[in-house]
Amino acid sequence: MADTAVERRPGRPRTQTLDERVLEGVSALLESGETLSVRRVVEASGVSKAAIYRRWPGITELIAAALDRGRTPYGISLSGDLLENLLEAFSSDGAEVGYSEERLRTRLRLSLADRDLQQTYWNSHITRRRAGLLELLQLGVARGELRADLDFDACCDLITGVFYYQVVVRGDSLSDPATRDRCRAALRVAWRGMLNPG
Amino acid sequence: MADTAVERRPGRPRTQTLDERVLEGVSALLESGETLSVRRVVEASGVSKAAIYRRWPGITELIAAALDRGRTPYGISLSGDLLENLLEAFSSDGAEVGYSEERLRTRLRLSLADRDLQQTYWNSHITRRRAGLLELLQLGVARGELRADLDFDACCDLITGVFYYQVVVRGDSLSDPATRDRCRAALRVAWRGMLNPG
Protein backbone atom coordinates (compact mmCIF):
# COMPACT_ATOMS: atom_id res chain seq x y z
CA MET A 1 0.00 0.00 0.00
CA ALA A 2 2.92 2.32 0.76
CA ASP A 3 4.37 1.48 -2.64
CA THR A 4 1.11 2.19 -4.42
CA ALA A 5 0.85 5.56 -2.73
CA VAL A 6 4.44 6.38 -3.63
CA GLU A 7 3.93 5.31 -7.23
CA ARG A 8 0.80 7.36 -7.61
CA ARG A 9 2.51 10.57 -6.54
CA PRO A 10 6.12 10.14 -7.58
CA GLY A 11 7.07 13.78 -7.12
CA ARG A 12 5.74 14.14 -3.61
CA PRO A 13 7.92 13.89 -0.53
CA ARG A 14 7.75 10.87 1.73
CA THR A 15 5.98 12.73 4.57
CA GLN A 16 3.05 13.75 2.36
CA THR A 17 2.66 10.21 1.25
CA LEU A 18 2.43 9.08 4.84
CA ASP A 19 -0.12 11.79 5.56
CA GLU A 20 -2.15 10.69 2.61
CA ARG A 21 -2.03 7.05 3.66
CA VAL A 22 -3.26 7.91 7.12
CA LEU A 23 -6.07 10.15 5.85
CA GLU A 24 -7.14 7.53 3.32
CA GLY A 25 -7.30 4.99 6.14
CA VAL A 26 -9.37 7.31 8.30
CA SER A 27 -11.71 8.08 5.40
CA ALA A 28 -12.27 4.40 4.72
CA LEU A 29 -13.02 3.76 8.39
CA LEU A 30 -15.43 6.71 8.48
CA GLU A 31 -17.24 5.45 5.42
CA SER A 32 -17.58 2.00 6.95
CA GLY A 33 -19.27 3.61 9.94
CA GLU A 34 -16.72 2.26 12.41
CA THR A 35 -16.00 3.97 15.69
CA LEU A 36 -12.56 5.49 15.27
CA SER A 37 -9.52 5.24 17.46
CA VAL A 38 -5.87 5.88 16.77
CA ARG A 39 -5.27 2.15 17.19
CA ARG A 40 -7.73 1.35 14.38
CA VAL A 41 -6.08 3.98 12.18
CA VAL A 42 -2.69 2.38 12.79
CA GLU A 43 -4.13 -0.98 11.69
CA ALA A 44 -5.88 0.45 8.66
CA SER A 45 -3.03 2.63 7.39
CA GLY A 46 0.04 0.70 8.48
CA VAL A 47 1.50 3.95 9.79
CA SER A 48 2.87 3.89 13.32
CA LYS A 49 1.14 5.55 16.24
CA ALA A 50 4.22 7.72 16.84
CA ALA A 51 4.22 8.97 13.25
CA ILE A 52 0.49 9.75 13.49
CA TYR A 53 0.91 11.69 16.72
CA ARG A 54 3.80 13.65 15.20
CA ARG A 55 1.36 14.97 12.61
CA TRP A 56 -1.94 15.30 14.47
CA PRO A 57 -2.45 16.00 18.18
CA GLY A 58 -5.30 13.50 18.50
CA ILE A 59 -8.11 11.55 16.93
CA THR A 60 -10.41 14.59 16.64
CA GLU A 61 -7.89 16.59 14.59
CA LEU A 62 -7.21 13.51 12.51
CA ILE A 63 -10.89 13.01 11.70
CA ALA A 64 -11.26 16.72 10.89
CA ALA A 65 -8.33 16.50 8.46
CA ALA A 66 -9.78 13.38 6.83
CA LEU A 67 -13.18 15.07 6.44
CA ASP A 68 -11.46 17.96 4.72
CA ARG A 69 -9.64 15.78 2.19
CA GLY A 70 -10.30 16.80 -1.36
CA ARG A 71 -11.79 20.14 -0.46
CA THR A 72 -10.23 23.15 -2.05
CA PRO A 73 -10.40 26.84 -1.15
CA TYR A 74 -13.21 28.82 -2.77
CA GLY A 75 -10.83 30.14 -5.40
CA ILE A 76 -12.54 33.49 -5.87
CA SER A 77 -11.01 35.83 -8.41
CA LEU A 78 -10.30 39.32 -7.09
CA SER A 79 -10.23 41.26 -10.32
CA GLY A 80 -13.09 42.63 -12.38
CA ASP A 81 -16.74 42.26 -11.38
CA LEU A 82 -16.81 41.01 -7.80
CA LEU A 83 -20.42 39.81 -7.82
CA GLU A 84 -19.79 37.79 -10.97
CA ASN A 85 -16.68 36.32 -9.36
CA LEU A 86 -18.71 35.36 -6.31
CA LEU A 87 -21.45 33.72 -8.38
CA GLU A 88 -18.84 31.92 -10.42
CA ALA A 89 -16.91 30.66 -7.41
CA PHE A 90 -20.02 29.33 -5.75
CA SER A 91 -21.54 27.68 -8.76
CA SER A 92 -18.51 25.87 -10.14
CA ASP A 93 -19.51 22.70 -8.41
CA GLY A 94 -22.08 23.72 -5.89
CA ALA A 95 -21.32 25.93 -2.93
CA GLU A 96 -17.99 25.56 -1.26
CA VAL A 97 -18.03 21.90 -2.05
CA GLY A 98 -14.95 20.59 -3.76
CA TYR A 99 -15.90 17.03 -3.03
CA SER A 100 -18.84 14.68 -3.19
CA GLU A 101 -22.11 15.54 -1.58
CA GLU A 102 -22.17 12.26 0.31
CA ARG A 103 -18.91 13.23 1.99
CA LEU A 104 -20.34 16.63 2.84
CA ARG A 105 -23.36 14.96 4.41
CA THR A 106 -21.10 12.60 6.36
CA ARG A 107 -19.00 15.48 7.60
CA LEU A 108 -22.05 17.43 8.78
CA ARG A 109 -23.60 14.36 10.39
CA LEU A 110 -20.45 13.57 12.35
CA SER A 111 -20.07 17.21 13.35
CA LEU A 112 -23.62 17.33 14.67
CA ALA A 113 -22.93 14.23 16.73
CA ASP A 114 -19.64 15.53 18.17
CA ARG A 115 -19.23 19.16 19.19
CA ASP A 116 -15.48 18.80 19.70
CA LEU A 117 -15.04 17.60 16.16
CA GLN A 118 -17.29 20.39 14.91
CA GLN A 119 -15.32 23.10 16.67
CA THR A 120 -12.01 21.61 15.57
CA TYR A 121 -13.20 21.46 11.98
CA TRP A 122 -14.47 25.01 12.18
CA ASN A 123 -11.23 26.36 13.63
CA SER A 124 -8.77 24.41 11.54
CA HIS A 125 -10.51 24.14 8.19
CA ILE A 126 -13.58 26.29 7.59
CA THR A 127 -12.20 29.56 8.90
CA ARG A 128 -9.23 29.06 6.58
CA ARG A 129 -11.47 28.34 3.61
CA ARG A 130 -13.60 31.40 4.30
CA ALA A 131 -10.53 33.63 3.87
CA GLY A 132 -11.07 34.02 0.12
CA LEU A 133 -14.66 35.14 0.57
CA LEU A 134 -13.64 37.55 3.30
CA GLU A 135 -10.96 39.00 1.04
CA LEU A 136 -13.50 39.58 -1.72
CA LEU A 137 -15.82 41.45 0.65
CA GLN A 138 -12.96 43.54 2.02
CA LEU A 139 -11.91 44.43 -1.50
CA GLY A 140 -15.50 45.44 -2.29
CA VAL A 141 -15.44 47.81 0.68
CA ALA A 142 -12.00 49.16 -0.29
CA ARG A 143 -13.31 49.85 -3.78
CA GLY A 144 -16.28 51.69 -2.33
CA GLU A 145 -18.71 49.24 -3.91
CA LEU A 146 -19.79 47.70 -0.62
CA ARG A 147 -20.83 49.45 2.57
CA ALA A 148 -18.06 50.36 4.97
CA ASP A 149 -20.09 49.18 7.96
CA LEU A 150 -20.43 45.55 6.88
CA ASP A 151 -20.26 42.84 9.51
CA PHE A 152 -18.01 40.52 7.53
CA ASP A 153 -18.68 37.45 9.64
CA ALA A 154 -22.43 37.93 9.33
CA CYS A 155 -22.13 38.39 5.57
CA CYS A 156 -20.00 35.26 5.13
CA ASP A 157 -22.54 33.28 7.17
CA LEU A 158 -25.40 34.66 5.08
CA ILE A 159 -23.70 33.82 1.79
CA THR A 160 -22.56 30.32 2.66
CA GLY A 161 -25.58 29.53 4.82
CA VAL A 162 -27.91 29.40 1.85
CA PHE A 163 -25.85 26.59 0.30
CA TYR A 164 -25.76 24.52 3.46
CA TYR A 165 -29.51 25.01 3.76
CA GLN A 166 -30.02 23.19 0.45
CA VAL A 167 -28.15 20.12 1.67
CA VAL A 168 -29.05 20.11 5.34
CA VAL A 169 -32.67 21.23 5.33
CA ARG A 170 -34.07 20.76 1.86
CA GLY A 171 -32.07 17.64 1.09
CA ASP A 172 -31.45 18.96 -2.40
CA SER A 173 -28.39 18.43 -4.51
CA LEU A 174 -26.15 21.41 -5.23
CA SER A 175 -25.62 20.16 -8.76
CA ASP A 176 -29.35 20.35 -9.48
CA PRO A 177 -29.95 23.37 -11.79
CA ALA A 178 -33.03 24.50 -9.84
CA THR A 179 -31.01 24.50 -6.62
CA ARG A 180 -28.21 26.47 -8.24
CA ASP A 181 -30.65 29.04 -9.62
CA ARG A 182 -32.21 29.47 -6.19
CA CYS A 183 -28.79 29.93 -4.59
CA ARG A 184 -27.74 32.45 -7.23
CA ALA A 185 -30.93 34.43 -6.69
CA ALA A 186 -30.23 34.41 -2.95
CA LEU A 187 -26.63 35.56 -3.49
CA ARG A 188 -27.87 38.48 -5.59
CA VAL A 189 -30.19 39.53 -2.76
CA ALA A 190 -27.35 39.32 -0.25
CA TRP A 191 -25.07 41.30 -2.55
CA ARG A 192 -27.64 44.07 -3.04
CA GLY A 193 -27.96 44.24 0.72
CA MET A 194 -24.23 44.80 1.04
CA LEU A 195 -23.98 47.50 -1.65
CA ASN A 196 -22.82 50.95 -0.73
CA PRO A 197 -25.84 53.23 -1.24
CA GLY A 198 -23.71 56.36 -1.31
CA MET B 1 -48.75 5.81 31.23
CA ALA B 2 -52.05 6.23 29.39
CA ASP B 3 -53.60 7.57 32.59
CA THR B 4 -50.77 10.04 33.13
CA ALA B 5 -51.17 11.38 29.64
CA VAL B 6 -54.91 11.72 30.09
CA GLU B 7 -54.51 13.46 33.44
CA ARG B 8 -52.01 15.94 32.08
CA ARG B 9 -54.35 17.09 29.31
CA PRO B 10 -57.85 16.59 30.69
CA GLY B 11 -59.60 18.64 28.02
CA ARG B 12 -58.05 16.96 25.03
CA PRO B 13 -59.81 14.25 23.05
CA ARG B 14 -58.72 10.64 23.36
CA THR B 15 -57.13 10.54 19.90
CA GLN B 16 -54.75 13.37 20.66
CA THR B 17 -53.66 11.63 23.79
CA LEU B 18 -52.85 8.53 21.81
CA ASP B 19 -50.89 10.60 19.29
CA GLU B 20 -48.94 12.20 22.06
CA ARG B 21 -48.17 8.83 23.68
CA VAL B 22 -46.87 7.47 20.41
CA LEU B 23 -44.74 10.54 19.68
CA GLU B 24 -43.33 10.52 23.20
CA GLY B 25 -42.40 6.89 22.72
CA VAL B 26 -40.69 7.60 19.42
CA SER B 27 -38.84 10.57 20.89
CA ALA B 28 -37.56 8.48 23.78
CA LEU B 29 -36.38 5.77 21.39
CA LEU B 30 -34.66 8.36 19.19
CA GLU B 31 -32.88 9.85 22.18
CA SER B 32 -31.67 6.44 23.25
CA GLY B 33 -30.12 6.00 19.82
CA GLU B 34 -32.12 2.85 19.05
CA THR B 35 -32.91 1.79 15.53
CA LEU B 36 -36.60 2.42 15.12
CA SER B 37 -39.32 0.14 13.89
CA VAL B 38 -43.07 0.26 14.29
CA ARG B 39 -42.82 -2.85 16.48
CA ARG B 40 -40.48 -1.04 18.90
CA VAL B 41 -42.85 1.94 18.96
CA VAL B 42 -45.74 -0.37 19.85
CA GLU B 43 -43.70 -1.76 22.75
CA ALA B 44 -42.57 1.67 23.95
CA SER B 45 -45.92 3.43 23.69
CA GLY B 46 -48.40 0.66 24.43
CA VAL B 47 -50.40 1.82 21.41
CA SER B 48 -51.43 -0.83 18.91
CA LYS B 49 -49.88 -1.19 15.49
CA ALA B 50 -53.29 -0.69 13.87
CA ALA B 51 -53.84 2.58 15.75
CA ILE B 52 -50.38 3.80 14.74
CA TYR B 53 -50.95 3.00 11.07
CA ARG B 54 -54.31 4.75 11.19
CA ARG B 55 -52.43 7.97 12.06
CA TRP B 56 -49.14 7.70 10.17
CA PRO B 57 -48.48 5.88 6.90
CA GLY B 58 -45.13 4.50 8.05
CA ILE B 59 -42.11 4.74 10.27
CA THR B 60 -40.57 7.64 8.31
CA GLU B 61 -43.62 9.86 8.74
CA LEU B 62 -43.79 8.84 12.38
CA ILE B 63 -40.17 9.82 13.01
CA ALA B 64 -40.69 13.12 11.16
CA ALA B 65 -43.69 13.91 13.36
CA ALA B 66 -41.73 13.03 16.51
CA LEU B 67 -38.84 15.26 15.44
CA ASP B 68 -41.29 18.10 14.98
CA ARG B 69 -42.79 17.76 18.46
CA GLY B 70 -42.67 20.98 20.42
CA ARG B 71 -41.90 23.14 17.43
CA THR B 72 -44.20 26.02 16.80
CA PRO B 73 -44.78 28.14 13.69
CA TYR B 74 -42.61 31.22 13.39
CA GLY B 75 -45.41 33.42 14.72
CA ILE B 76 -44.51 36.50 12.73
CA SER B 77 -46.70 39.53 13.22
CA LEU B 78 -48.03 41.04 10.00
CA SER B 79 -48.79 44.54 11.20
CA GLY B 80 -46.48 47.50 11.62
CA ASP B 81 -42.77 47.37 10.80
CA LEU B 82 -42.13 44.14 8.92
CA LEU B 83 -38.35 44.06 9.41
CA GLU B 84 -38.79 44.52 13.15
CA ASN B 85 -41.36 41.72 13.16
CA LEU B 86 -38.93 39.49 11.31
CA LEU B 87 -36.08 40.23 13.72
CA GLU B 88 -38.40 39.68 16.66
CA ALA B 89 -39.75 36.38 15.37
CA PHE B 90 -36.29 35.00 14.73
CA SER B 91 -34.70 36.12 17.95
CA SER B 92 -37.36 35.06 20.42
CA ASP B 93 -35.53 31.85 21.17
CA GLY B 94 -33.05 31.52 18.38
CA ALA B 95 -34.04 31.03 14.77
CA GLU B 96 -37.08 28.96 14.03
CA VAL B 97 -36.32 26.85 17.01
CA GLY B 98 -39.19 26.31 19.37
CA TYR B 99 -37.42 23.45 21.07
CA SER B 100 -34.05 22.49 22.45
CA GLU B 101 -30.92 22.76 20.41
CA GLU B 102 -30.00 19.17 21.12
CA ARG B 103 -33.24 18.06 19.50
CA LEU B 104 -32.52 20.29 16.53
CA ARG B 105 -29.08 18.70 16.18
CA THR B 106 -30.60 15.23 16.45
CA ARG B 107 -33.17 16.05 13.80
CA LEU B 108 -30.54 17.35 11.38
CA ARG B 109 -28.22 14.42 12.05
CA LEU B 110 -30.95 11.87 11.36
CA SER B 111 -32.02 13.77 8.24
CA LEU B 112 -28.49 13.76 6.89
CA ALA B 113 -28.31 10.02 7.41
CA ASP B 114 -31.67 9.32 5.77
CA ARG B 115 -32.79 11.18 2.66
CA ASP B 116 -36.33 9.78 2.83
CA LEU B 117 -36.77 11.13 6.32
CA GLN B 118 -35.30 14.45 5.24
CA GLN B 119 -37.66 14.83 2.30
CA THR B 120 -40.63 13.76 4.39
CA TYR B 121 -39.74 16.25 7.08
CA TRP B 122 -39.26 18.97 4.51
CA ASN B 123 -42.60 18.31 2.81
CA SER B 124 -44.72 17.71 5.85
CA HIS B 125 -43.25 20.10 8.40
CA ILE B 126 -40.80 22.72 7.19
CA THR B 127 -42.76 23.93 4.18
CA ARG B 128 -45.72 24.43 6.50
CA ARG B 129 -43.64 26.35 9.00
CA ARG B 130 -42.18 28.59 6.32
CA ALA B 131 -45.67 29.80 5.44
CA GLY B 132 -45.53 32.65 7.98
CA LEU B 133 -42.25 33.95 6.61
CA LEU B 134 -43.54 33.70 3.07
CA GLU B 135 -46.66 35.63 4.06
CA LEU B 136 -44.52 38.40 5.54
CA LEU B 137 -42.49 38.73 2.34
CA GLN B 138 -45.61 38.72 0.18
CA LEU B 139 -47.12 41.44 2.35
CA GLY B 140 -43.91 43.46 1.96
CA VAL B 141 -44.24 43.24 -1.80
CA ALA B 142 -47.96 44.09 -1.68
CA ARG B 143 -47.12 47.16 0.41
CA GLY B 144 -44.51 48.19 -2.13
CA GLU B 145 -41.74 47.99 0.47
CA LEU B 146 -40.09 44.94 -1.10
CA ARG B 147 -39.21 44.38 -4.74
CA ALA B 148 -41.91 42.87 -6.92
CA ASP B 149 -39.43 40.49 -8.57
CA LEU B 150 -38.39 38.64 -5.40
CA ASP B 151 -37.74 34.92 -5.60
CA PHE B 152 -39.58 34.03 -2.41
CA ASP B 153 -38.09 30.57 -2.05
CA ALA B 154 -34.57 31.94 -2.45
CA CYS B 155 -35.27 34.66 0.11
CA CYS B 156 -36.71 32.22 2.65
CA ASP B 157 -33.64 30.01 2.21
CA LEU B 158 -31.32 32.98 2.65
CA ILE B 159 -33.07 34.17 5.82
CA THR B 160 -33.35 30.82 7.54
CA GLY B 161 -30.04 29.47 6.18
CA VAL B 162 -28.00 31.83 8.30
CA PHE B 163 -29.52 30.36 11.48
CA TYR B 164 -28.90 26.77 10.46
CA TYR B 165 -25.33 27.75 9.60
CA GLN B 166 -24.71 28.70 13.24
CA VAL B 167 -25.76 25.27 14.49
CA VAL B 168 -24.59 23.05 11.65
CA VAL B 169 -21.32 24.66 10.63
CA ARG B 170 -20.13 26.91 13.45
CA GLY B 171 -21.47 24.71 16.22
CA ASP B 172 -22.64 27.83 18.04
CA SER B 173 -25.67 28.16 20.23
CA LEU B 174 -28.55 30.28 18.99
CA SER B 175 -29.10 31.55 22.51
CA ASP B 176 -25.57 32.99 22.63
CA PRO B 177 -25.83 36.82 22.35
CA ALA B 178 -22.92 37.04 19.87
CA THR B 179 -24.62 34.49 17.62
CA ARG B 180 -27.91 36.37 17.80
CA ASP B 181 -26.22 39.66 16.96
CA ARG B 182 -24.50 38.07 13.96
CA CYS B 183 -27.80 36.61 12.75
CA ARG B 184 -29.59 39.93 13.17
CA ALA B 185 -26.86 41.71 11.20
CA ALA B 186 -27.24 39.11 8.45
CA LEU B 187 -31.02 39.51 8.40
CA ARG B 188 -30.63 43.27 7.98
CA VAL B 189 -28.37 42.69 4.99
CA ALA B 190 -30.88 40.28 3.45
CA TRP B 191 -33.71 42.72 4.09
CA ARG B 192 -31.86 45.61 2.44
CA GLY B 193 -31.29 43.35 -0.53
CA MET B 194 -35.01 42.72 -0.82
CA LEU B 195 -36.06 46.39 -0.53
CA ASN B 196 -37.86 48.04 -3.39
CA PRO B 197 -35.48 50.68 -4.74
CA GLY B 198 -38.25 52.51 -6.61
Word description of this protein:
Two copies of one chain form a homodimer. Chain A has helices spanning 2-8, 14-32, 38-45, 49-55, 59-68, 82-91, 101-113, 115-129, 131-142, 152-170, 177-194. By secondary structure, chain A is mostly helical. Chain A has two domains: 2-68, Tetracycline Repressor, domain 2, CATH 1.10.357.10; 82-194, Tetracycline Repressor, domain 2 (Orthogonal Bundle), CATH 1.10.357.10. In chain A, helix 2 (14-32) crosses helix 3 (38-45) and helix 7 packs across helix 8. Chain A is elongated, with a radius of gyration of 19 Å. Chain A starts with a helix and ends with a helix. The A-B interface holds A 105-106, 108-109, 111-113, 115, 118-119, 122, 126, 150-151, 153-155, 157-158, 160-166, 168-171, 182-183, 185-186, 188-194 and B 105-106, 108-109, 111-113, 115, 118-119, 122, 126, 150-151, 153-155, 157-158, 160-166, 168-171, 182-183, 185-186, 188-194.
Determine Rg of chain A (CA atoms, Å): 19 Å
Distance between the termini of chain A: 61 Å
Biggest interface pair, counts: A-B, 41 and 41 residues
Helix content of chain A: 55-70%
CATH architectural name of the largest domain in chain A: Orthogonal Bundle
Structural domain count of chain A? 2
Name the quaternary structure.
homodimer
- CATH top level assignment of the largest domain in chain A: Mainly Alpha
How many strands in all of chain A? 0
For the report, how would you describe the main beta sheet of chain A? Answer: none
Helix count from the secondary structure assignment of chain A: 11
Poorly predicted runs of chain A are 1-10
The CATH homologous superfamily of the largest domain in chain A: Tetracycline Repressor, domain 2
* Secondary-structure element pattern of chain A, one letter each: HHHHHHHHHHH
Could you tell me the CATH topology label of the largest domain in chain A: Tetracycline Repressor, domain 2
Strand-residue fraction of chain A? under 5%
- Which class do the helix and strand fractions of chain A yield? mainly alpha
Give average pLDDT of chain A, whole number.
86
Shape label of chain A: elongated
